[in-house]
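Regression test attached.
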Amino acid sequence: MSSKARSSQETAARVKALESMLIEKGLMTTEMVDRLVEIYETEVGPQLGAKVVAKAWTDPDFKARLLKDATEACKEVGISGLQGEDMVVLEDTDDVHHAIVCTLCSCYPWPVLGLPPNWYKEPQYRSRIVREPRKVLAEEFGYQIPEEKEIRIWDSSSEMRYWVLPQRPAGTEGLTEDQLAELVTRDSMIGVGPVKGAS
Amino acid sequence: MTTAPMRPAPTPEQRAEVEELVCDLPGGRPGELSFDEPWEIRAFALAVAGHKAGQFPWASFQSALIESIRKWESSVDDLSDTSWSYYEHWVEALEQVLTSSGSIEGEALDNETDKVLATPPNRNHHKAHLDPVAIDPPVATGR
């Protein structure tokens, strides 16, 4: 079969089929494949979320548009990739901290965040972050949310994918947008970790 | 909880071990590996895992990849043709070595692929959830 004739979607399906056949035959384990993927998982996809966050921190009008309609605002900066599916950005404040999960599978805003980390897909995270969010953030991620802050957990589905706009750290007034983008971690946009330079 | 969701990050040694394999591939020099879509990294990992599991010698995969790329190059007028996809060739090469070693049967793979295509992704998870699924209220501090 000529590879030219295949669409990216067909190839993706073929890869999935290959993986399930190899695992079913016992020739390899999901674990083996996952461990290899982990080496490069932060390098998959456009990883554009950090740029969007930095832009929102420096441009109040853009931030307003982003919070109103993240899908449209992301298009402004050249991010699309999901058709008929909406992205919603949740803004962290002094009073509320947000984090995302997909309780059923692994729905994830990958056009902005790249590939989901393996733990995002694991049952432990999916169920426990809903039951005891404050404890999971502190114990599993070493991320202490001040007790006076409310924590909200949002369930992404394939129709609506959430991600988090973290708070801009204090003392970053002099930084450029590009410098600010460097502070934004993937985990801070999932809601399970701080941005760099934040206390 | 016995299994923490956060696993230790892969070590530089693990990465070096993989890159030693890929550095002799066309277009596979360290720093040049980049993945645009999730299936690409999955395909990448499958080939490395297959080799490590003893399914095929790395040299066979390497020649299959070179051959697939060579065929494409001779089929287009211009090497900047938009049908270029490095990982399409990667998948083709992987299929090639797995079918010739007898690990996978081509027809069975076609059937399995059709099954995957017929199953929409996240088929049970289409409904938008408009409210938070959990809220952990502030702890009363008595202030």
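Expected vs. actual: identical. Chain A touches chain B through 76 residues (CB under 8 Å).
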